[in-house]
Amino acid sequence: MKDKITATAVDLFLRLGFKSVTMDDIANNLCISKKTLYKYFKNKHALVEESAGALHASYFKIIDTITAQEFNPIKENFEIKKVLKKMFQNASSSPIYQLKKYYPKIHEKTMQKEKILFSGCLQKNIEKGIEQGYYRVDVTINLATQFYFSLASSIHENTIENNKIPKLEQEVLAYHTRAIATKKGILELENQLKNNQL
Predict the structure, then answer these.
(1) Cβ–Cβ contacts within 10 Å for residue 49, how many?
(2) Under the phi-then-psi rule, with left for phi > 0, alpha for psi from -120 to 50, and beta for the rest, what region is 93?
(3) Are 87 and 95 in contact (CB under 8 A)?
(4) Which residues of 112-146 are buried (b: 16+ CB within 10 A; e: fewer)?
(5) Is the pLDDT at 77 greater than 90, yes or no?
(6) Could you tell me the pLDDT band of residue 176, with boundaries at 50, 70 and 90?
(7) The dihedral of CA 78, 82, 87, 91: what is its sign?
(8) Rounded CA separation 97/122 (Å)
(9) Please, what's the b/e burial string for 72-99 (b: 16 or more CB within 10 A of its CB; e: otherwise)?
(10) What pTM was estimated for this model as a whole?
């Protein structure tokens, strides 16, 4: 039942916003009493924290699925972006923006975890890109990772309208790729931009 509550809460939080959804809304949606809901979650804050964790876990599960398909590193980044856009397409506004505004402690905890996982994924992507000739051998992997994470995080933390995020994300991805790509990488980037026009 706890997983079912969390899944329903994630769906409602994304569609209607973390602030707007009440414990009554979640209980009514599940056709259960609030007493049953509070049996698993002592308050809304605890449910938001669990939901943020579940959302985060599904986000990285998607990334793992895509990286396992062995795309070239530039296509891999575009495929991840494409799937995540679909995942958050019904969100009322940026989930990260909402967390930062209404649940700052949960936001901070989530972003610390995301920085570790995202940085690990991106480092592997850059290493693969160097090996395959898409990225330059003189790239400082750690710095490139930090720069990209900072730019991508800034979009989600400061953009209210969810529908504006995909274009901004693509701009940041193109900027990041151009900064570290070889000629071969630039050609692949142009190909991906052409195939993923927004």
Answers:
(1) 18
(2) beta
(3) no
(4) eebeeebbebbeebbebbbeeebbbeebebeebbe
(5) yes
(6) very high
(7) positive
(8) 22
(9) bbbbbbbbbbbebbeebeebbbbbbbbb
(10) 0.85
In total, the chain counts a number of residues equal to: 198
Contact 33, 91 (CB under 8 A): no
Using CB atoms within 10 Å of the CB of residue 182, give its burial: 0 to 12 exposed, 13 to 18 middle, 19+ buried: middle
Q: Which domain holds residue 153?
A: 2-195
SS3 state of residue 35: helix
Look up the CATH number of the domain holding residue 88: 1.10.357.10
* Concatenated DSSP letters of 148-184: HHHHHHHHHHH--BGGGHHHHHHHHHHHHHHHHB-HH
**Token pair listed for 116:** 């570790």
Q: What is the pLDDT of residues 113-148, one digit of tens each?
A: 888 888 899 999 999 999 999 999 999 999 999 999
Domains held by the chain: number: 1
Q: Would you state the pLDDT for residue 92?
A: 67
